[in-house]
Amino acid sequence: MSVTSEPSAISDISAADLTAAAAEGGKSDVGVAVMDLDSGQVVSEQGDQPFYSASLSKLILAVDALQQPLSDDDQDLIHRALSASDDNAMDVLWTRFDGMDAIGRVAAEAGLTGTHTPDDPSQWGEVVITANDMVRLYQYILGSPVRDTIVAALSSAPATAADGFDQAFGLLGVTGIYAKQGWMYYLPSDVYLHSAGVLDNRYAVAVLTTNPTGSWTIARQSIDAVTKAVLVKLGVNS
Question: Comparing C-alpha atoms, which of 212, 215, 203, 213 is closest to residue 227?
């Protein structure tokens, strides 16, 4: 996909457009939100629907950690967690930077009304998020001192993650977009695939999905279909 020379204004996008885009997800439960970063206007479909974060919690924790004194090792761990979505790096960061309290601090600072800590403190993939909160988080990041570090890490995300997973789905790999990806298999058969990023430095986009089939292939097809439908409305054509 490539970005057209004249991206659409968010005023051209209706809630009905996002309802139609979410329907492209088939059996998946879908939450979608788009924010115009210039105006702060948000359009969403199930934007306040709660989802387990999977690896999107890495982005939230990084915001908090980057506001503290960091060693070179800390900086490397954050980069690995954001770019290659390294779970081992996140395990260290979650403990080292007080993940449970960090989630609450960032939620308060960024105005994330639907984001909260997991019931089990050891399960950072079960941080609860919403699509609306993820676009608000990007708005906060891009206006804060942590912007350059986070954007650089997300912009260098490889197609293959640290665990060997193909994270080139949803927004990742689309020209003009940097994104954080999330994936998780949750028993008995829920497949979580999330993609949240920034398009052309103008729009924050979050596509959160849970597919009940137990199939990574079907879940990937689902989030790709939803994402494509959203991006077409934002002036991105295949």
Answer: 203
At 206, list the tokens. 């979050």
* Burial zone of 26 (CB within 10 Å; 0-12 exposed, 13-18 middle, 19+ buried): middle
* pTM of structure: 0.94
- Among residues 94, 171, 97, which one has the least CA distance to residue 134? 171
75, containing H or E segment: helix 72-83
| Segment 193-222, tens digit of pLDDT | 999 999 999 999 999 999 999 999 999 999
Q: Which two tokens stand for residue 109?
A: 């600072």
Tokens standing for 178? 């940097």
Contacts for 91 with CB less than 8 Å, ≥ 6 apart: 124
Domains and CATH numbers, the chain: 2-237 (3.40.710.10)
CA distance 119 to 99: 13
Distance CA 70, CA 172 (A): 28
Helix or strand or coil: residue 160?
A: strand
